[in-house]
Design brief:
With 149 residues, the chain is an all-alpha fold. The protein has two domains: 66 residues, no CATH class; 69 residues. Helices cover 84% and strands 0% of the residues. The chain contains seven helices and no strands. Helix 2 packs antiparallel against helix 3 and helix 5 runs antiparallel to helix 6. The longest helix has 29 residues.
């Protein structure tokens, strides 16, 4: 589901100019900032929207599309019980996490930090599931008798 949301977000970004994104950010935060001018989230949204360039939006769109597409393809493979997809999912997400940490070090952004934490959780869950699947395949008799989580 997260991968699909990233693809949708990437497609939307392809069609939005930085000016349009700024106007949407102003519209979304206007009420909150009129009531609470120091609201952290609303101010971060506006600050981020103010700093956008055409290249930044295009990069964000391409990044979200690639990140989402890889996740969707690999999740489908995982659902089809393709064992090769587990290490690929882990490796690809670790590459994305590495890049995201680099970007966070340069310019911390709440959304990128959240995406990185989410990816770390997915890597952990994928690693755990991969181990369970390997044990089941290596010893199906014992795995059948072992109670689940």
């Amino acid at each position: 589901m997260n991968g699909l949301a990233e693809i949708i977000g990437g497609v939307i970004l392809l069609f939005l100019s930085p000016d349009r994104i700024h106007r949407v950010a102003v519209a979304l935060t206007q009420v909150e900032l009129s009531d609470h001018p120091r609201d952290f989230v609303a101010n971060r949204i506006l600050h981020t929207a103010n700093g956008l360039t055409g290249q930044a939006v295009l990069f964000g769109a391409i990044y979200l599309l690639a990140h989402g597409a890889v996740k969707v393809v690999l999740v489908i493979a995982l659902l089809l019980n393709k064992m090769w997809a587990y290490p690929w999912m882990i490796a690809v997400l670790i590459i994305f996490i590495g890049y995201q940490l680099y970007r966070i070090a340069l310019n911390p952004a709440v959304a990128l930090i959240a995406l990185t934490v989410f990816d770390l959780i997915i890597v952990t869950l994928t690693w755990r599931e991969y181990g369970q699947q390997r044990r089941r395949r290596l010893n199906p008799v014992t795995a059948a008798r072992t109670p689940g989580p």
